[in-house]
Design brief:
Chains A, B: GO terms for molecular function: 3-dehydroshikimate dehydratase activity; dioxygenase activity; metal ion binding. Two copies of one chain form a homodimer. With 641 residues, chain A is α/β, with parallel strands linked by helices. Chain A has 21 helices and 25 strands. In chain A, a hairpin with a 4-residue loop joins strand 10 and strand 11.
């Protein structure tokens, strides 16, 4: 399909926007009128700029409050239209968006609306231009695509067609199914926007909270599918009003926009194929399906194979000591590099202190931090190809004589995601001299989840990255109080939840998340949770080994006593071990404990899930954040002494 | 009245909150349960801390989902209550907030609710404790104070009373009038919160957007008045859930909270006196009225007498040159200091380059900037006393032999607000040697408005400052697009609008407002608008004098042509002079033009209002912000060359 985006979706001056749009690989651009008004160059110059950049001007927008206007204003409104037609011809675009009238005094009689649209269509048609009529969700009389199609059908003019915008239909919980019945050539243009589901005024929702497909909660494939079935072959365009996007770097944001369209096309194609197979729709012509992006299908992920920390000699020694106290064994040493392997249960942790390596440059930039995550995947080759087709950035580092090459792409924070195939046997034998006598002192079983801290304005970008490249799913956002502000968390999960990545952001300067970000000078891992089958045994061992556990106030346990039916002895045990507790509505239970942070940045969680508990202990995050703030102020006090 | 605030209204750890609350001058504090749970000290330690700080614990809150709970949970819920009663006795507070049940499976039968409340009251009463029952706006069955009073009345137990919260009534557009009919001693507690009017889910609105009285749009005096009439004599307490407050410095925020209560009390007292005088209510006993704060009444403001810029020798010379080109005369020189006076029409501008002065330290901190504003006021003495009683910070600087002393207070940005009384004749004669031959070359008449740039999180604080101390009014917030993010603007006005201060904020790093803030290292003046009666004559003169006017794109004028019935000649003239135009619904017209910024920070606006135009040209702010961004990037380019 021809992929397009509206200038209003990006920040910057008009040339900055156009350059970003071209660089991202879009085929076209909708010119939002204000961007043109505020630009010092002439419409002809803009036309030339787009031509030089290789992008088509797919639409000029918006033309407001026309049809059904007060009769004494009609002539004046037609004059206004002619002036905008002049402008369109200078710009070299033939299509204008006419959105449904919102004026309180506008007329709702269908015949008047039909006549007005036809009149405008005649004026446009006479100049070789076209009108795309769109229902705003807050239009005074017209706010559904069904009404728009009814009016367009009656206007019956070749220059008058339907313009669809997913937001206006889905925000009102409209059913897009009937779009399939509109002749494809009477749909002149399609705008796509996603949004989180918010219980608020629809106009405010639309103006501030739209986002790229895949970042919100609308069923956009369900909206696009009937459009494809209608036979529509025009542009698919993003029109995103979003406060964050207005301030985001336009190049990176435009790249996300293109990725979101590819993701949407894939989902739509899958949906159409499934519906065809199920016989719920008539077969879609292959030519229509083939317009849609078709990357290699997603592979199944099966947990974290290893994580790799970038360290130097000193921090590496220190972190190895921490891990040893947490029950890990020193399982191996790299054959040729300053890289060691710590192991326990199904958990492999690589500490990389090799100079002149990727890890080293990562360490230089961010200090001790997680520089790579290896995910186990059914088919690493197709997983890698999929990531590449979604514009993931492949990475190929130095490969020594005895080393394997594992396909990898850059995560949004610049760290690496290795894709380790099922076929990879003896992964560690090749690179490491393994210590056959290494025996972990603990019984931690696997990495349960890895929580990341990231800048507030990059959350949507991360979500889209994992959804598109790795086919992950995203949970709903939860908002949690830190003593110094709010923290928002949204968890990403592989299908079947074998890999879980809660993403944490904060817009306030002094929260735990913001402190982590400033220590990393960017984003980074916030904590890694290890699952086990007998938490108290693990904590006992860790305490004996001297692991510094995060101290939980006794008042928390008084409240547990009020909320749950625990006997006092068990509560004392929880309190003694600083164990936090949560129970979900289905009776699932979580027991978990945190370490203090390593070097004031990341920390570890030990947890035990019972009876199918699926969350992350959100009920306990506030008490954890308060305890972390106390540790920070204690460290700050020490540093001052 | 006893003035109180809930810990949830402030950021920080519990001790930080309590210290801030005491320092602000509150009499009491509501302990929000989570603040206690997350604190490592025992309830007894908190009790001692409050005693040491001289604040009473007025309330423990909340106790949720009790009345009408599923019958199989009642015994367990009573146990839970007894545990919380233990805690309250440790804390030394006798009152707990019980908010109406929100559980989907809770029972709504009034008799059950009455019985449950009475049962809880008996348990509480047996321990000398009391229950304040509150209707949450989103309660499952109970969401009005009328229902609460009905249930409390029927429960008929001395330990069970009504708890009122302004948000829960006013968010649902409830009428508070009937509160006056509740016996005052059956109202156990009153919580006050303001909020902007938002069309959104009431729970989300309540949890994130409450603000201090005077910062939002609720009629809080109208809510408090019937409470006073009921004979209530208990605490007046702030319970503010606000995302910004959760991250704001607690001491400054608590001070705002106390100021907001004083402001509310004054408004309520005025309302009650007016209602009594009008005979719409029965006379309120003097003892009730006298509980309410009564500062000196506000004085009438009558425009800006002068503004003062902090400069050094070099910047002073440069700014004087700018002002001269804008038509100002060099009207005088200070008798003893390096301070000069520029004058035109009714506008006086003081340029202060005196070393060892307030202006000098302001210049050192902020660079060339507005360091003082003198407002003309009917009675400067009572205006000053009012500001002081509202905890304004008086300022008294060095006074030389021939100088006047003018009462002044610090504005929120640390600059001074001088209060110049009507009686002050010959204000400038005393301090300045005036030049009798100085004749302005321009005809600018007066300062129309002064726009300020301030950090995003301080807007509410500024609004409250001007409302309380100076009795200003605040317009609704408008949101405006800068090419690099959003700008929000809220205008403050003296009654009769002789002084107008639009306040501008931006949460994005790269907007015009954020650039101004970083140049000031804090807040500062963004622009000063001068009004005149013949704008084209003034611009003509200014252009000839070499004033750099902000260049407006021609595309803007093409759009004006489409929107308004101007002839081409007039449009060409507007374009030639870079004049922006706006027309309001009543036919009021604004013509205005901007200079480029002085030293990349503040700039000047020349404007002419016609037919009673009252706004600030919001329709043109986006084009102005885009033009300013272009100037910035031009300057940045030049700086790089």
């Amino acid at each position: 399909m021809q992929r397009s985006i509206a200038t209003v979706s990006l920040s910057g001056t008009l040339p900055e926007k156009l350059e970003a749009i071209a660089a991202a690989g879009f085929d076209g651009v909708e010119i939002f009128e204000n961007d043109l008004l505020y630009y010092a160059g002439s419409p002809r110059e803009i036309r030339q700029m787009c031509a030089d950049l290789g992008i088509a001007i797919t639409l000029f927008q918006p033309f407001r409050d026309f049809e059904g206007c007060r009769r004494d204003r009609l002539a004046r409104n037609l004059d206004r239209a002619e002036r905008k037609f002049d402008l369109m011809q200078e710009l070299g675009t033939d299509l204008v968006l006419v959105c449904s009238n919102v004026a309180a005094d506008s007329l709702g009689d269908t015949q008047i609306l039909v006549d007005d649209l036809r009149l405008l269509g005649e004026r446009a048609g006479a100049r070789g231009l076209r009108i795309g009529y769109e229902a705003l969700a807050w239009g005074r009389h017209v706010n559904t695509y069904q009404q728009v199609w009814d009016i367009v059908r009656q206007a019956d003019h070749s220059a008058v067609g339907v313009l669809l915008d997913s937001f206006h239909t889905l925000s009102l919980k409209g059913d897009p199914a009937a779009i399939a019945d509109i002749p494809g050539d009477k749909i002149f243009f399609v705008q796509m926007a996603d949004a989180p589901i918010l219980a608020m005024d629809v106009l405010e929702w639309s103006r501030h909270f739209r986002c790229f497909p895949g970042q919100g909660e609308f069923d956009l494939a369900g909206f696009l599918a009937p459009i494809i079935r209608s036979g529509y072959t025009g542009p698919l365009s993003l029109e995103i009003f979003n406060d964050g996007f207005r301030a985001a770097p336009p190049r990176a944001n435009a790249a996300d926009g293109l990725r979101s369209l590819l993701y949407l096309e894939e989902k739509t194609r899958n949906l159409l194929e499934r519906q065809t197979a199920e016989g719920t729709i008539a077969p879609v012509p292959p030519a229509s399906l083939d317009m849609l992006f078709a990357p290699p299908a997603a592979s199944r992920y099966d947990g974290v194979e290893f994580v790799e920390f970038a360290v130097d000699g000193e921090q590496g020694t220190k972190l190895a000591g921490w891990l040893e106290r947490l029950g890990f064994a020193r399982a191996g040493q790299h054959r040729s590099k300053d890289v060691s392997l710590m192991r326990q249960g199904d958990i492999n942790i690589v500490l990389n202190a090799e100079p002149y390596s990727f890890a080293h440059s990562f360490f230089e930039a961010h200090g001790p931090s997680l520089c790579a995550t290896a995910l186990r995947v059914k088919d690493s080759h197709s997983a890698f190809e999929r990531a590449r087709e979604f514009k993931g950035q492949p990475y190929r580092g130095l490969v020594g004589p005895n080393e394997r090459e594992i396909p990898s792409v850059r995560a949004p924070d610049g760290s690496l995601i290795y894709l380790v195939g099922q076929a990879e046997n003896g992964l560690y034998d090749t690179d490491f001299v393994l210590n056959p006598n290494a025996t972990p002192s603990g019984n931690l079983q696997r990495i349960d989840h890895m929580a990341m801290a990231l800048p507030a304005d990059s959350l949507d970008s991360w979500v889209l990255f994992y959804k598109a490249l790795l086919d992950f799913e995203a949970d709903d956002e939860v908002v949690l109080p830190d003593p110094y502000g709010l923290v928002k968390s949204r968890a990403l999960r592989s299908r079947c939840s074998s890999v879980r990545l809660p993403l944490n952001i904060s817009e306030n300067r002094n929260t735990a998340i913001s402190h982590a970000l400033s220590s990393y000078r960017g984003s980074g891992v916030h904590h890694i949770a290890f699952a086990c089958d007998d938490l108290f045994a693990e904590i006992n061992r860790a305490k004996d080994a001297g692991v510094p556990l995060l101290d939980i106030p006794l008042n928390y346990y008084d409240d547990l006593a009020a909320r749950f039916d625990f006997d006092d002895e068990f509560l004392s045990e929880l309190a003694y071990y600083n164990v936090l507790y949560d129970r979900d509505a289905q009776g699932g239970e979580l027991f978990h404990v945190y370490t203090e942070p390593f070097e004031g940045r990341f920390f570890f969680e030990l947890l035990q899930r019972k009876n199918g508990y699926v969350g992350y202990g959100a009920a306990n995050v506030a008490v954890r954040l308060a305890a972390m703030a106390k540790v920070r102020s204690g460290s700050a006090r020490q540093a001052r002494l």
